[in-house]
Each structure stands twice: as structure tokens, then as C-alpha cells.
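Hi V.,

You were right to ask for the full record rather than a summary. Here it is.
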Amino acid sequence: MLWPEAAKRAIKIGPDREVVSVYPYRSGCPASLWRSLITTAERELSFAGYTNYFLWLEQARFGTALRRKAAAGCRVRFLLGDPNSALTQAREQEEDVALPLSTRIRVTLAELDKVRHQPGIEARYSDGHAYLSVFRFDDDMIVTPLLTHQVGHDAPTLHLRRHQDDGMFDRFASHVEELWNRGTPVWEEHHGQA
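Predicted structure:
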């Protein structure tokens, strides 16, 4: 009689089984986990962060990794905030930090410009994810809901792994797809890219 209850407590069997780990701050999520997820992804890398700036700082040779992944057939997508939008300006006022949001987006755009000619790498602007970042690596995902007046590295962070239809993973993935479909291309058409 005790065994089923002990097993239920030790093994996740409900919807929360998709939660691999939690971190009170994105900066507490190990850079080695990000690198491992990037390295092992084969089908899809989606970076739906408002700036995605930290990736270029924390991941050595990130542009090279993106090119290699895209060349191997992995779809690589970036959703960014528009550095000139009213929403970006409003968030900059909320954050009130030395390195403004628009500057961080422009740094990412400059880095993406170096890899934009690699088929399979795409980028779009979207204002629909200003307070939620979703990073997908095949069936793994890192999700960071931004808190008011906080920057991304201070956001609570979840590492999710897909285990069921219409679970947390699928719900966040659908959110990113909707934003992607509504997004505005960063570049003109190139190699069949938007």
C-alpha cells in the first residue's frame, strides 16, 4: 500500500513531469546546459528572447555553432524585439540599466548579420514576447518569464522536456509558432529565408 505513494512522490507522473529543473535566476542556469542543448539539437533551435544578447556573450563561438547546425539541416530561428518600437522604449524605461534594451538588440542583429547568408538561419521581429523568453532545442526548452523592472538574467527559469501532447512544452512551443507567424522578417528574402 505504501509503495505506490512513495513511487508517485519519487517519480513525476503528472503534467509537471515535463519540468526538468528550475532556477530562481536565468544567470543561475549553467552555461554548460545551454551549450549541451545547442550541441545536441538536430531539428530545431529557436531563440525567442527579446534581445538574445546574452547568448553571444556566454556561448563561445556561438555564430560558428549556429552555422554548423544550419549546415547540418537544423532550423535556426531568432525572434527579437524591434529596437525602434514603442514597446522597446517602454521596457528600457522600466529596466533603467546602463546598456539599453535597444542596444542589446542591435548587438544581436550585428552578430546575426554575420551568419545571415547561411541557409537555414532566420530572424524576425516580434513584440508579442516582451515579457517571456522561450528557447527551444528539439524536445528541450528553457523558458524565462520576465518580472517587472527586471532584466533577463534575473528572470526565473524553467528547463522543460517534452513528454506529452498539449503539455507545458507544447503550449510554449505553440506560443512561439504564433509569434513567428505574425513576426516581421529582419532581412529581405535570401536563400528561401524570410
